[in-house]
Amino acid sequence: MAEKKYSHKQMKKLMKEDEVASVVDKVLSWGKENKTLVYGIVIAIFAAIAIYVAVTSYSTNKTEKSELAFSKATEIFYYKPKKNEAPKYKNKEEQYNKALEEFKKLEKENLTKSVKLRAKFYEALCYLNLNNIGEAEKILENLYNSAPYPFKTTVALTLVNVKSNSGELDKAIAILDNLMKQDTFKNPVKDYELLKKSKILVKQGKLEEAKELLNQLILDFPDSAFATDAKKEKENIS
What we know:
This protein is mostly helical and about 240 residues long. It has two domains: about 10-80 and about 85-190, Serine Threonine Protein Phosphatase 5, Tetratricopeptide repeat (Alpha Horseshoe); about 190-238, no CATH class. Helix content is about 75%, strand content about 0%. The chain contains twelve helices and no strands. Helix 3 runs antiparallel to helix 8 (about 150-165), helix 4 (about 60-75) runs parallel beside helix 6 (about 115-130) and helix 9 (about 170-180) runs antiparallel to helix 10 (about 190-205). The longest helix is centred in the first third of the chain and has 17 residues, at about 40-55. This is Ancillary SecYEG translocon subunit/Cell division coordinator CpoB TPR domain-containing protein. Keywords: Membrane, Transmembrane, Transmembrane helix. InterPro entries: SecYEG/CpoB_TPR (IPR018704), TPR-like_helical_dom_sf (IPR011990). It comes from Thermotomaculum hydrothermale.
């Protein structure tokens, strides 16, 4: 039986928090513009944020203060000048360096653990955009070993892409295998992970194993957007 999927609009309705829904919009928009960072990362962030809202209370002053501080930092990260507006930053490098500075400040403030965790993850994203892969990988590995689910899924998928792009294919597959053992709450994007693993297997020349995963994706997740991608991948392998 296929797992239930929600559209972007349905997820936003479930979330109820306008501020966080706005962040989701920015994440999705940023993901479309930064395709080098693989769409799966954006999917994972989207899913993790939705779950965070479903299980987290926004009633305390500390939490409200924390979310506001985090929102201001992400505004810099996702900043895009409006039409006819003079850009705030000379270039993307300056923008990401400024965002990195703001996320690092959050670590030192009296904020919630949830915000500090997400801020650390965004530090890694800043480093990736600044092409400092080593520093990004160090942060991601630390978070992967310490972050709770479902946020760990977001971290893991980002780390998978870093490992895969660095040629560490076996390590990338090991992370994916661990993710796919988790239940739907901890890991809401198994369909993407099946597709991702199949592509890595193709890189390794393991075409039959890749086909098996693509068939599993098509069978288990017939309504997934990634099922369409899986069919195309199968044609390319054949």
